[in-house]
UniProtKB/TrEMBL annotation:
InterPro entries: Chorismate_lyase_/UTRA_dom_sf, UTRA. It comes from the Bacteria. It comes from Paractinoplanes aksuensis. This is UTRA domain-containing protein. Residues 11-78 form the UbiC transcription regulator-associated domain.
């Protein structure tokens, strides 16, 4: 992972770097909530307090059911649209 400079400079995906390091996702869970920006978030995201945001919590597990990727993020959908592409196997 230390060599995953493409992730740090924005030219490669974290998913590809994790796969290259042997972390292959078997399942993942995403929880999405609409939340108003509090004072701190509003300041970080340069929006007025109370602006609607999406809070996304994510966890990914390996085939051995070991959790290896967790994140929580707040999304401004006026800047980045949320796109969901789901399929069944």
């Amino acid at each position: 992972m230390a060599a995953a400079t493409g992730v740090r400079d924005g030219t490669s995906s974290l998913t590809a770097a994790l796969q290259d390091a042997g972390y292959v996702a078997a399942r993942a869970k995403r929880v999405v909530h609409a939340v108003p920006a509090d004072r701190v978030l509003a300041g970080h995201l340069d929006v007025p307090e109370g602006t609607p945001l999406l809070r996304i919590r994510s966890i990914t597990w390996s085939k051995a059911q070991v959790a290896f990727d967790y994140y929580e993020t707040w999304l401004r959908t006026d800047v980045v649209p949320l796109e969901v592409d789901a399929k069944t196997s």
